[in-house]
Design a protein that fits this description.
With 472 residues, this protein is mainly alpha-helical. The chain has one domain (10-471): Orthogonal Bundle (Hydantoin permease), CATH 1.10.4160.10. It has helices at residues 10-21, 24-36, 40-68, 72-80, 85-118, 131-151, 161-178, 181-208, 213-221, 230-243, 250-255, 264-292, 300-314, 319-355, 365-385, 400-427, 430-437, 445-471, and strands at 155-156, 159-160, 357-358, 361-362, 394-395, 398-399. The protein is globular and about 70 Å long. Bound molecules: phenylalanine. The site of phenylalanine has 15 residues, from helix 1, helix 2, helix 10 and helix 14.
């Protein structure tokens, strides 16, 4: 067997891992949840949770992966010395692929909207920007979205457009991953993550000119401690886990590609900071326009695909402003989504190439990716169909799309995080864990001791408590 895959450079490692973290969760969920839960008060709680609870979990996942030098399933077995732990790894991998199926649908929408934006669909409408006109535009954009998602829009070769885009998005992922970990994932992330950051900055700068900038910024950045409830803390933990891609095989897999002499603590720290920063910038890019036009702030698809296009269409400065801003926004949404989906698909690819055999031979990446393309693609098509009229698929009272979202975020992510902490904090030998976290004594052990202690005693209890509360 040849050399195992690795990230080639330190910067590339950070870009790929930050790419996994920064995703749709940061752009359409964080600003909204933060704004409604005390603004900066939420931000502070979220940041503290990211560092105290999520970072030890992330480090535990890195340790399992880098020590195991294998896919998540095998790394869990190697680290624990027990075959049964492989089940945890396998569940995480399949849950990751299920999230990927649903992620592809939403990312596919971003492709549709890139085309709509570039061709000027969201450019300035004539006829002023009174509240009434703005609301009419939002209603029109809402209808456009519902029609596109619900009935598939116009059909290409009689396949509804959301399905076409979903498959195109998944195929792009497979092509990039076929090039390998460093030549595919790392190379793309090295370009896309800085570009994402710059595009966000462009949007923030454009929104500074708007009348509603101060109001929008203060919605996000002014601390309002009276809005903080026990629920707020749960939201912050859930958001932190999802946005840092924890409990889902992505970080364990990427951990196995980090070079042995790179400090895991600094990678985790930089990724956490980058994730928080991008989420705040996303809020600063989005809220000023909602406040300028006095529209209600929402989150999720409603915000990104209904409200924002209507607001872009109304921006002052002529049609080109609408074209530029909307194109930039949907391109950055695509970059955020695709760098996250790489990590989910890579977790599956590592597993299939290392564990599955045909005629006693391990599979090559292209073969593994073809298998995953068919599996994930099928589930994606069902997810997309589950949103359409007449084909709604209901699982336990929810559409398949919502069911996968809830099952993974509320149940599998926290349990996966707890499992990683127990494995590293309780089952693995302390020396092995410390050697991994300090790269055999190269890096400061003081911080490592702190994170180890948190992973060993505090994180599992806190996460379990929140998990039980979340089920109530
Ligand atoms: N972190 C990604 C986001 O914020 C989602 C994700 C979750 C990606 C789990 C990989 C694994 O959108």
């Amino acid at each position: 067997m040849g050399e195992r895959n690795q990230f080639a450079s330190k910067f590339g490692t950070m870009a790929a891992i930050a790419g996994s973290a920064v995703g749709l969760g940061n752009i359409w969920r964080f600003p909204y949840v933060a704004g409604n839960n005390g603004g900066a008060a939420f931000l502070i709680i979220y940041a503290v949770i990211c560092v105290l609870i999520s970072m030890p979990v992330m480090l535990s996942e890195f340790v399992i992966g880098r020590k195991g030098q294998s896919n998540t399933y095998r790394s869990f077995i190697k680290s624990s010395g027990k075959k049964g732990w492989g089940i945890v790894g396998a569940v995480e991998i399949f849950a990751g692929l299920a999230i990927l199926a649903f992620y592809c649908v939403v990312a596919g929408w971003s492709l549709e909207y890139i085309f709509a934006a570039v061709t000027g669909e969201f450019a300035s409408f004539s006829g002023g920007d009174t509240a009434e006109i703005i609301n009419e535009r939002i209603a029109a954009m809402g209808q456009r979205f519902d029609l596109f998602v619900g009935q598939g829009g116009t059909h290409i070769l009689s396949i509804p457009r959301p399905i076409v885009w979903t498959i195109v998005f998944l195929a792009l992922n497979c092509i990039v991953l076929a090039f390998g970990v460093s030549k595919g994932i790392e190379r793309c992330s090295k370009f896309m993550i800085p570009a994402l950051f710059l595009l966000l900055l462009v949007l923030v700068i454009m929104s500074v000119r708007l009348d509603g900038f101060a109001a929008g910024a203060s919605f996000l950045l002014k601390p309002n401690w009276s809005a903080v409830t026990p629920q707020t803390i749960m939201f912050a933990l859930g958001q932190s886990f999802f946005s840092l891609s924890l409990g889902m095989s992505a970080m364990t897999t990427y951990g196995s590609y980090i070079q042995k002499d790179q400090s895991l603590v600094s990678v985790a720290f930089i990724v956490v900071i980058a994730t928080i920063l991008m989420a705040v910038l996303a809020g600063l890019a989005i809220f000023p326009s909602t406040f300028t036009y006095g529209v209600e702030v929402t989150s999720g698809p409603g915000l990104v695909f209904k409200t924002l296009p209507a607001l872009f269409a109304s921006l002052p400065g002529g049609p080109w402003v609408g074209i530029v801003v909307s194109s930039v926004f949907f391109i950055l949404l695509f970059f955020a989504a695709v760098t996250s989906s790489f990590s989910l698909l890579e977790a599956g690819t590592a597993y299939v190439t290392e564990e599955w055999h045909i005629a006693r031979k391990t599979l090559s990446r292209p073969v593994a990716l073809t298998i995953l393309f068919v599996l994930v693609g099928t589930l994606s098509v069902f997810c997309a169909l589950s949103q359409m009229e007449g084909t709604s698929l209901i699982v336990m009272g929810e559409s398949l799309f919502d069911f996968i979202d809830k099952l993974t975020s509320n149940i599998i992510l926290p349990l996966g995080g707890i499992a990683a902490c127990i494995l590293v904090g309780q089952l693995m030998s302390k020396d092995v864990v410390f050697n991994e976290l300090t790269s055999n004594g190269q890096f400061n052990a003081k911080l490592v001791r702190f994170f180890y202690w948190m992973a060993r005693y505090v994180c599992p209890i806190v996460i379990f408590y929140m998990f039980i509360k979340g089920l109530e």
